[in-house]
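Exercise 3.2. Students should predict the tertiary structure of the chain below and write it as structure tokens, then compare their answer with the key that follows.

Predict this chain's 3D structure.
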Amino acid sequence: MRPPLRLLLLVLLLLLLALPVTAAEIALAPPVEGETLGAQSVDSGASNGIDYLFVWGDRRGSAITPPRRAARVTRDGVVLDRGGIALPFLWETNSVVWTGTSYLIVWNEQSAIRGVRIDAEGKIVDGPRVLKAGAWLHSVANAGPHVVLAYQLKPGNEKRALFLDSEARIAADVFLDDPSFDEMSIACSRTHCAAIWKDSNSTTPPLSWLEGVRFDVTGRLDASPRKLLPDGMYFSSKPAIASDGDTFLMVTKRGIDAVFARRLGADLDLIGAPLPLPKPYYESLGRFGYSNPLLWNGSNYLIFDDDRRSITATRLERDGLFAGSTTIESDVSLMSAVPVVNGSDMLVGWTSFLHPEFEAEAFGTLLTGPTLERRSRTLLSVGPVEQRWPSIASGGTNLLAVWREGVEIHARRLAPDGTFLDAVPLRLSTNGIPAEVVFNGSDYLVVWADIMQTWTGTVVTRIPRDGPLRVDGQTVLPKASPATAVSDGVTTLLFWWGSGELHAGRILADSSIDGDIVVIADGALTGMAAAAGDGAFLVAWETRTFFSPPANYDYQIHGTRVSPELTRLDTPFDLSPADPTQKDPGVAWNGREWLVTWISSSSELRGRRVSRDGVPQGETSGTFIASRAAAPSVTWDGNRYFLAWHESRVAGPTTIHTAFLSGLGQPLAGESQIPQKLFDWGALSIAPLRPGLVAAAYTRLISFGAYDEARLAFVNLVSPAIPKRRSAR
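Answer key:
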């Protein structure tokens, strides 16, 4: 007999009510294009005579070995591939060269020369594949219809040149010289190529000299290599060579800092005397991957020098005479200049550490003609601006969310149902890292690290809960790094780090700071958390103890209470002395006592109660809550504890778990998961709205059009549906 339909519907409804439910997550702001923080660094570049192609390393995903991206740029400096062309794995030392039909990116990997081709439309058409096995690449150049690669054959180190056709197929493999360990540089005129190197095989003075040899696709043109320097000019290193189409110019170093140019005829005969350069530009200049740092732009030879402060172009006449210098870019932290000639114009790719946290961006500077006049600056590594470190607090009638976007700090208010109360976010800072948001009973207080100062400063800003979204007061503590802020609705305490100590002071109604006490004077303390109770604040922190052997650290969780009058009420006490390692403390107050949570040495989330008068309760090892946990957060929603934690730190995407807990020793209820591909391993910012409804703020990656992924900040309203209890009969 089938059960009645009403009974089936009732059972289904009860099952649905018993399931944990999370609201649709709310993105705090849409992704926008801009600088992609995360250490982009220009590798190499080339031109097809119309456009440019640049390759850079891209650490926006925090990879140990960063992936590579490429972008085509027009001769007017417009980036065609806004999201960058995602490349298969290639080594960070690489070069790009135009084959006549496509761009060829070459690099060395596992004793082989490898390559991948990209067509003029930005599509990968071939590779990655091995171009030459058992080879070590030295130099790359164009040779009419061919690309030529100077390399050493492994084993043995025999010097050779590999000619490739327009599809990167081998057209010829030319012997150049007997084995040695010296690096080669090559350049090609309209009729043939030349390779030069420092020969250091001699055991009698001079111990080293420069040698060179001519060759083309048919083979070596000289019976044997020839010396390129007169007697007595020894200890030459890092030779570079370029051609104006007919003759060659060589630039090298002699001794410690003597840098000079020397013109060579078409047959590598010496023309004139060595010409010293006015300063050792070439000394600090590395190769552009496997491409020569000496270029011919149709009217001058050019040497580009970056000294980590500026990029300078030195112009040399056809005969090697100094013709002047031009500063291309000037900044406090520049590096990796990569010049590419396109006819007579140039685009110089470079990397700039624009921000104090040493994250870098890839730029290109467009230069016109022989004067090297700067026309424009282009951001090459365009991408979605990162949103990170969101923090959230509840003011009862609404929420305030604060997050970092790029290097700026933004704020926005939401209604308890997740709808935005402000049409656009408010920018609080042009360079900072948010630390905490707290509601003091009438206003929101936002605490962040100001990283533009010589020393990190702590900034406290007051934002009204109601009315227009605005800043209503601000205080700066110099030479202080923010830890957290906590309020009981009457008194708000700010905690900050300074000189290895944890300090505390009161935040007054106008956002000024009153008082300064040292809560813990221990240089080995690290993470901390705090919660307001009835007449006191409980502070929990971890201390780090070095032990050897083996070389490692123990972490212990300690606690103490601080009064609203800034008096430390306890001698610091151990919260889990039975476990050798505890980390990531969290604290919550339930109206009667505190709960302190931490992660044990076995990656378990554990907790221990602390009484109103500061006495730890229960087992010294704490009570088990969950396994495979990291970076927990805990709060009290009015009826139960709400916990959020990451899965144990493992490679790849992770998951955030949330759950409600009536008390220690009770089972978790309403456990749910927040989607994968999360970043920012720190504890989540969580804020109770009412019993059974808690807001959680976090960062995760989403798919975003041509950019593959964007890192956005979200708020999620977490609420498990609780089935109604049957009334007692």
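Discussion points: The domain at 33-383 is CATH 2.130.10.10 (Methylamine Dehydrogenase; Chain H). The longest strand covers residues 537-547.
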